[in-house]
Amino acid sequence: VQLQAFGGGLVQAGGSLRLSCAASGRSFSNYVMAWFRQAPGKERELVAAISWVVTGTYYADSVKGRFTISSDNAKNTLYLQMNSLKPEDTAVYYCAASRNLHILTPASQYDYWGQGTQVTVSS
Question: What sign does the dihedral 17-96-51-65 (CA atoms) show?
Fold first, then answer.
């Protein structure tokens, strides 16, 4: 599966952005789909993930209540709605897909990656 992420940008603290990830190839409902982010000097961290095989979602504690992962399966597109953004949300955001049935947090468990999209939140 090929992934392409877009929708990043510069936003003020408290604002919102919606990231999109278009998938081509096999339907992404066969994978765990996820959003990761990586800030300068930090490890890539799982922000949110969704699984349709073993139905469920995951959110990092730092984004719970502010971010929502969703999808349009007919369009094979994954979304990340980000509200109440904070300067610490500034990072490059990546969409990823895993062949695992369960949602796993390490980036090493994900098999396919899109290019990153920069999100910058100003204070």
Answer: negative
